[in-house]
Amino acid sequence: MSRKRGTVLVGGTFDEFHKGHRALIMKAFEVGERVMIGLSSDQLARELRKNHDVATYEERLKDLRAFLRRQKMLERAKIVPLDTPYGITLSTTVADALVVSNETEPVGIDINKKRKASGLKPLELVVIDMIPAQDCIPISSTRIRRGEIDREGHLTPHEEQV
């Protein structure tokens, strides 16, 4: 395994905290000694215009902390609210890498362009594949909220009959 980076960034809304979110966060801990997790604020979640309700920041924070506690990773994590899609990525000098899914990789590329333009060192991008559900379509909070799949990516009984 390659050497661990010092501080790694990862961010998201983490609504309906699911298998894909867990994979993204586990990757961050795999590659970093410390992980800063940006959690979308309620305001940002509204601005992102998800086509469904989103749990409150406090509910999403509780789920995230419970997961980190179960994995014994809470002491290596720092959770910060994200008020913009870029969070602290455009200002921090302590981070070495940013973990993104292949769906959000373009945002990571954009972050590095903006960092370079402002004289900051680009972040190493660590990209993971989206986690497929039972039907081979990526797991997403939207699909869970629609009742198509559960948080593990299993089709709901209704969807299996369709």
Give, in spatial order, the strands making up the sheet with the most strands: 3-2-1-4-5
How many DSSP E strands?
A: 5
* Relative helix content: 25-40%
Mean pLDDT: 93
CATH architectural group: 3-Layer(aba) Sandwich
In N-to-C order, the SSE pattern is: EHEHHEEHEHH
> Which geometry do the CA atoms define?
globular
Structural class: alpha/beta
**Secondary structure tally, helices:** 6
Low-confidence stretches: none
In percent, how much strand structure appears in the residues? Answer: 15-25%
CATH topology: Rossmann fold
Distance between the termini: 44 Å
- Domains, number: 1
Largest sheet, in brief, is:
5 strands, parallel
How would you name the CATH homologous superfamily?
Answer: HUPs
Overview of this protein structure:
By secondary structure, this protein is α/β, with parallel strands linked by helices. It has a single domain, classed as HUPs (Rossmann fold). The protein is 35% helix and 22% strand. The chain is built from six helices and five strands. The radius of gyration is 16 Å and the shape is globular. The termini are far apart.
